[in-house]
Amino acid sequence: MEVLPVGPEALLVDLDGLDAVAAVGAALRDALSRGELPGVVDVVPAARTVLVTAPGAREALPGVRSLLAGVDTTAVPERGAAGTVELDVHYDGEDLELVARDAGCDVDEVIARHTGATLTVAFGGFAPGFAYLAGLPESLQQPRLDTPRPRIPAGSVGVAGEFGGVYPRTSPGGWRLLGRLTADAPTLFDPDRDPPALLQPGTTVRFRDAGRA
Fold first, then answer.
1. Whether residue 24 is found in the same domain as residue 116
2. pLDDT tens, 98-108?
3. pTM over 0.85
């Protein structure tokens, strides 16, 4: 773990991987919930880092450093500690056959492997409400498309590299698409909700097969 200043009111914690990010993020969020880090406003995990911000309260940062010194980065939080979300999917994505071919199986087996996986929100990014989901079966960890699509519909479910994800809004994108959320799926990002993003770091996510209608 390396703790770096980001200006006078933030710290960037540089780590070895997703498990360490999960451990540090959970420890910081737990401390915040207990009121132990007054002045800290946000804890933002990424693939290999955690950003801690304390705007207007630089005096909070020594306390953050002290807490970090005692964090066991091998203590991965228990799955589901931040709640569980189940999402129904129509598996009719444009890249389903491609994913099956590269996985060395048929489409039904791709669906079985995707719905059989217990995924965890590692971090958010790219767009408001977009969550990077860790825990994909190795056969579904496939590269992005060589040429991104200019328009991916909101609710599209895809895979890219080691992550799964769901597009919360219509946008460009290069992930391989497996399907789309059903019409009654919960809103992934609502600025009037607290918190706005449905899928928060540490949340467990399960996908369910709603058919290919």
1. no
2. 999 999 999 99
3. yes
